[in-house]
Amino acid sequence: FLEWVRQCRAAGIHCPIIPGVMPIQAYASFKKNIVGVSVPQWILDGIEPIKNDDQAIRAFGVEVGIKMTLELIEGGVCGIHYYTFNLERSTRLILEGAGLVNKTDYIKKNMPWRSSFDEKRREESVRPIFWANRAKSYISRTDAWDEFPNGRWGDSRSPAYGDLDRYGVYLKYTSDEAVQNWGSPSDLQDICRLFVKYCTGETLTLPWSDQALALESGTIKDRLIELNSLGYLTINSQPAVNGIKSDDKVFGWGPKGGYVYQKAYLEFFVSPETLEKLKQRMSKFPNFTYNAMNKAGDLHTNTNGSKPNAVTWGVFPGREVVQPTIVELASFDAWKDEAFALWEQWSRCYPQQSKPRELLNELGQTWYLVNIVNNDYHEKDGIFEIFMEDVVAAQQQQQQQEADKTVTAKLQEVSISAHIAPQVEAAAVPEAVKA
Fold first, then answer.
1. Fewer CB within 10 Å of terminal CB in the chain, N or C?
2. Rounded to the nearest 5 degrees, what angle is found at the Cα of 29, between the Cα atoms of 111 and 85?
3. Please, which residues have CB within 8 angstroms of residue 244's CB and are 6 or more apart in sequence?
4. How far apart are CA 310 and CA 307, in angstroms?
């Protein structure tokens, strides 16, 4: 880059030229982004031995970013642009390591979401949780709102969420990129494996998530992997939080000196059969509330449906309690239209009558979108108890399969021994006769 800038200056080009640095976040995205690019051998040699260790990859990416930053500054650049892709932690660590920011300072959120730069949205103080991973869509669909929300706990249907026909539903990628990132699923197990890869960081996006798994969801990553393996396709989640300081680097938001709270929340797609099982179990969990809808709008719920449920709140010095994130039936109804439309958008990335297209269309047409709130925020892992029957059944099935494999292997050994023994005896007779 520095040599190229020197050539530009020699050619009479004097406008500012700003380099862009993209921190290495994951091995898969690194390999994708270096296609057709010349990469120094020391980077390739450094990343290959740790390609299966996500944490080591990010740490190596920070080291590379610090080295690049220092060399660029020494080379006299007028500035550096960092591509964060909403993963600002690596960039912050690079800036700290290069001595450009104080290690005690970090980007802090005023709300649990990233506040909009739009001046008219500065007073926005409440959002439904459903658009947590598709913030751009939420902003575009509520752009005509006069207030955010229209009254502190006002009915979000007035003014209404923007119609999908007006704002459209879009995927982040082209068809070719979607196939490259998400493969060509031919059965439900392929879909489950893809969602598991998203939870492990092997896949950085999904149609319903424009960014990698959030840091706070990463604290329950193992549970999410377990659920997706069982056919609960999770697209949004938050763990329970009972009074963590507002300057916490994972859960913190709002002014200093405060404490933040969260109810455990899960949102996922399930089959109609699985939904029926969940409904039957729900009576055993009086602190749980849920909403479930399919594409046609068939609603199942144990709430009265009329009042919002605050699932995130903060207590700060000299202020009233702030309740910025809610679960609400009216907004859930608007979100489910978008959520199911994304199944259709994803299916269009594949040829007509192909297995992936038919599979994705079937799931979008028949499955339900479900959200569950555990209203007892003291229970750290309580929301996962409703799934324990499925977990235990899956474990027993796996143990049975392993036992069956062991029995089959032993039977094969016995069969082989029975087949070989007569041949060994027959071959040994002539030797005995000679003796």
1. C
2. 25
3. 251, 252, 259, 260
4. 10
CA–CA separation, 291 and 329 (whole Å): 7
Per-residue model confidence as pLDDT tens digits over 93-151: 899 888 887 765 545 678 898 777 666 777 788 899 999 998 888 888 887 776 665 54
CA 417 to chain CA mean position, Å: 52
d(CA 247, CA 218): 18
268 in Cβ contact with 191 (< 8 Å): no
d(CA 372, CA 267): 6
Task: Find how far residue 422's CA is from the centre of its chain.
Answer: 60
SS3 labels along the chain: CHHHHHHHHHCCCCCCCCCEECCCCCHHHHHHHCCCCCCCHHHHHHHHHHCCCHHHHHHHHHHHHHHHHHHHHHCCCCCCEECCCCCHHHHHHHHHHCCCCCCCCCCCCCCCCCCCCCHHHCCCCCEEHHHCCCHHHHHHHCCCCCCCCCCCCCCCCCCCCCCHHHHCCCCCCCHHHHHHHHCCCCCHHHHHHHHHHHHHCCCCCECCECCCCCHHHHCCHHHHHHHHHCCCEEEEEECCEEEEECCCCCCCCCCCCCEEEECEEEEEEECHHHHHHHHHHHCCCCCEEEEEEECCCCEEECCCCCCCEEEEEEECCCCCCEEEEEECHHHHHHHHHHHHHHHHHHHCCCCCCCHHHHHHHHHHHHCEEEEEEECCCCCCCHHHHHHHHHHHHHHHHHHHHHHHHHHHHHHHHHHHHHHHHHHHHHHHHHHHHHC
pLDDT for 143 equals 75
Q: Is the whole-model pTM more than 0.85?
A: no
Cα–chain center distance at 129: 14
Q: Taking residues 257-279, report their average pLDDT.
A: 97
For residues 126 and 153, give the distance between their C-alpha atoms in angstroms, rounded to a whole number. 9
